[in-house]
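Continuing the series of single-chain predictions for the mutant panel. This is the parent chain; the variants come on the following pages.
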Amino acid sequence: MYSANDAKISVAGAGAFGLATALRLARAGLAVTLFDPAPPGDNASGVAAGMLAPISEALFDPISRDHLALMRRARDLWPDFAEALAIPLSRAGVRIEGSDSWRAEVAKRLEQLGVSPTDVIDEDWRLDARPALAALRAAAEEAGVVFETGAVAAFQPGALTLADGRVEAFDVLVLATGPGVRDGRIAPETAALSPIKGQLLRATLLDDEAVVVRGEGVYLAPGEALAVGATMEAGRDDLAPDASATQALRQAARALRPALDLEGASVEVGVRATTPDGLPLVGWSRAPGVMLAVGARRNGWLFAPLVASMVAAYLTGDNPGPEAAAFDARRFEKA
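Parent structure:
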């Protein structure tokens, strides 16, 4: 157990998990320094539509279908979390559009999930990812989190080593970064992670409608710009835009909205890490002093408040809650 009087905490990664966790720990009175090599917002959490959408995830990502109740509980933490940070939440929902046959298939899946068939899923919400990252960072700085540029290369209690050779004294490392750590070198449990490359397009909004539109093979999420997403390229961890991979995305978007200017759209690329069951690793590693908060798949934003609370509970000796077993950082070693 750690307290404000006896611990220096380092956090690796300035995405949704890292920032939410650093903020939560700083507000608990702990001394926190966050390390990230990239400019603010330049990560997978920034390359996102900001969906807080348990139903849509269970519908369209087969690995998530058994996690609907858990994802709903995670989403329900967001209203209070967002209000405290002045992060706007859109509750306009997700509208299903497409051919009659495809919509009938979606209705069938909804029934299998125990959800009444509907063309508008009003319990799926959204936020604007980059402004939300900025709000989290500002709140963390105000709470006393120190931000340093750098990538964590190694850790043992009392010595955190950065990629540039610097060594700094910390008692704990919270590993909240993405697929770059999956070699097991810092924490052996991360060997269970695999990368997923995601590409989305940012296009000009056609109207001021707030609802997210979900079609076959694509979603259109309004915000500061329209997010047209997203590819799921398993096993890839490069950040190069790939027109061949986004071609199907463009075709599906044009089928829904022929007037979209997709030739003028920008392409954003992010790489996420996933576990075999689609849920993150959260908890103590076998590596001394290393706390894991990694492997969010497509749900980094959805799970961020929950994961931050769990990490704080582990570090302060509190009960991490009912999700501890499902998120157990060592669960794949037991298989």
